[in-house]
Specification:
This protein is α/β, with parallel strands linked by helices. It has 2 domains: 2-62, no CATH class; 74-244, Vaccinia Virus protein VP39 (Rossmann fold). The chain has 10 helices and 9 strands. The strands form 2 sheets. A 7-stranded mixed β-sheet has the order 5-4-3-6-7-9-8, sandwiched between helices. α7 links the parallel β4 and β5. α1 (2-11) packs across α2 and α9 packs parallel to α10 (214-223). The longest helix is centred in the first third of the chain and has 12 residues, at 31-42. It is globular, with a radius of gyration of 19 Å.
């Protein structure tokens, strides 16, 4: 049975066919259920949507069909946020998607926001002790709320580059979670511009971006009156812009 499923998955172009086959077998309740899961996967549905979960920072995060799948590189953003957040801090996770980043931050007062209703439903399952809102960036947050750590995994793919993405992403994930406008930075500029009004004194904003886009965002951070620095992880291909509300306290960049 295993070899037959591996063959089907390989024929469909699944690079990690053996690992995927084992996961599908484990997830299936009956032979008919297994056949249906394999059919969905060979039909192009992302493995995470087939299974109903994604592995992120060593934990399983519920991911429903049509919801953005958290990327491995975003684990670096979560790690940077975790290094800055202290127990009891107020943390805001904008463009939270499934809530994967927020789920890694324990012992904090967590507020999460996404504009996509399906993502919000998913995030509420993954963040049972958090406050999860549906809406556009800062709009649904309580008035007067100021974050010690504000994290955003906003869309940053340029519109013209969407068609170059793997079919799993561009067909099965919501465009609102991918499309960042002409240069990919429309949403992130809005996040940065609104951050000073929502950050506590000495609070930090962290946003994921690409290495090429980072200098543009650093300029936006300076224009917003915040103090920027960059952190990166070459192995993951991850870049994070960190902006401090006030002078940078001198913490070394996360590695």
């Amino acid at each position: 049975m295993l070899s037959a499923i591996i063959t089907r998955l390989r024929a469909a172009g699944c690079v990690f066919a053996e690992d995927e086959a084992k996961l599908l077998i484990t997830a299936a309740r009956t032979p008919a259920d297994l056949d249906a899961l394999v059919e969905q996967r060979t039909g192009g549905l992302p493995l995470e949507h087939v299974l109903g979960w994604a592995e992120f920072c060593g934990r399983r995060v519920a991911v429903d069909p049509g919801v953005f799948v958290p990327r491995r590189r975003t684990g670096f953003l979560a790690r940077c946020a975790g290094e800055l957040a202290r127990p009891g801090d107020t943390v805001v996770d904008l463009c939270c998607g499934s809530g994967a980043v927020g789920a890694t931050l324990t012992g904090v007062d967590l507020y999460a926001v996404d504009i996509d209703p399906a993502a919000v439903r998913c995030a509420r399952r993954n963040l049972p002790s958090g406050h999860v809102y549906e809406g556009d960036l800062y709009d649904p947050l309580p008035a007067g709320l100021h974050a010690d750590v504000l994290v955003a995994n906003a869309p940053y793919v340029p519109t013209d580059a969407i068609e170059l993405m793997p079919p799993e992403a561009r067909i099965h994930e919501p465009r609102v979670a991918l499309d960042g406008g002409a240069d990919g930075l429309d949403v992130l500029r809005r996040v940065i511009a609104g951050a000073p009004a929502r950050l506590a004194p000495a609070g930090h904003l962290l946003v994921e971006t690409s290495e090429v886009q980072a200098p543009v965002l650093v300029e936006a951070v300076v224009l917003a009156g915040l103090t920027p620095r960059l952190a990166g992880d070459e192995e993951l291909g991850a870049t994070v812009v960190i902006a401090t509300n006030g002078p940078d306290p001198g913490r070394p960049p996360a590695r």
